[in-house]
Task: structure prediction
Amino acid sequence: MIRDAWARPLGSLRVSVTDRCNLRCRYCMPEQEYVWLPRASILTFEEIARLVRIFASLGARKVRLTGGEPLLRHDLPVLTEMLAAIPDVHDLALTTNGVLLEKLAEPLRRAGLHRVTVSLDTLRPERMRELARTDRHADVLAGIAAAHRAGLTPLKLNSVVVRGTNDDELPALLAFARTHHAEVRFIEYMDVGGATGWSFDQVVSRQEMLDGIGRAYGEPDPLRNPDDPAAPAERFRLPDGTTFGIVASTTAPFCRSCDRSRLTADGTWLLCLYAASGVDLREPVRAGATDAELAELITTVWQGRRDRGAEERLRVAGRETLYPREALRADPHREMHTRGG
Ligand code: SAM
Ligand code: SF4
Ligand code: SF4
Result:
């Protein structure tokens, strides 16, 4: 296992398989137009599987497929099967907006996917229309049901909480999760690249969420997570036994235990969600680097990693959006939908 400059292991890798998306969530893709990664730069399944194998051999035992919307990538079960066959990959998960999940849940399960997280910010179709510019709310719910039927468990739901948008739905989302065999994670609105409409007053803090949930269902008890100390979500249990998580990336970041890095669809390796730039792994892969050379490059870069992006953002006075629109258009690698959540 390799460790970075703050002794954090390289434990997990998020693999974005496409920068395209079929939704336009306000907190991620609020613009009318985007600059996309050039098609020829997108890694093939063979290239992705090779890099994942090397990362896994260096300690990244947890792999999560993401995007953009990962289910838009053609033949995703084929890639899933290739990744599931890598012995060092012990946990293979997927984060999806769920729109296309109903048909794909079973093939993905058969291909070896272990579990899935579905993003669900609201139970109201009309609200989703406004929040994500889509009328496919019912498809997302069908996708969640299909994931449960297929055994893609433990099933998780991600809800980004935005003040004035869906912050009145926390009790309802908890109740929905409980009856749909899922655990919800409430995520603080983050000022990541892409979130061009972000402002601090729209962030509902972890504490506010806990207070609101406590008023609805009784005091939540913190749960320890000794199996996965690097997990981004803090977990809680309600008096009725319902469990849920909070990802407090904005008001209480957890960089000190962060073992995650991200590979974009074009092979750019980002050491932090907030990193301004990444390391191009596609170039050496396509130039004929050996596995040993790639492993050495990854090791050297990780050993020098000092990123603590979210903690550094806490110290920024008068915090505004991370990047202006022009900076995102100049380099789409800065977009959340390019680097994956
Ligand atoms: N399209 C897939 C989806 O939405 O699940 C996968 C990619 S998406 C970038 C991954 C996660 O990032 C989603 O759960 C999404 O809610 C979260 N996300 C995107 N923008 C965010 C923001 N500004 N603050 C907090 N979470 C965000
Ligand atoms: Fe929404 Fe995910 Fe698409 Fe971003 S990538 S717009 S979070 S569905
Ligand atoms: Fe990890 Fe960067 Fe997120 Fe901190 S901000 S938890 S270092 S990815």
Notes: The pocket of S-adenosylmethionine (ligand 1) is lined by residues 21, 27-28, 66-67, 69, 95-97, 119, 158, 160, 187, 189-190, 192, 195, 336-337, 340-341 (CB under 6 Å). Residues 51 and 61 are 13 Å apart (CA to CA).
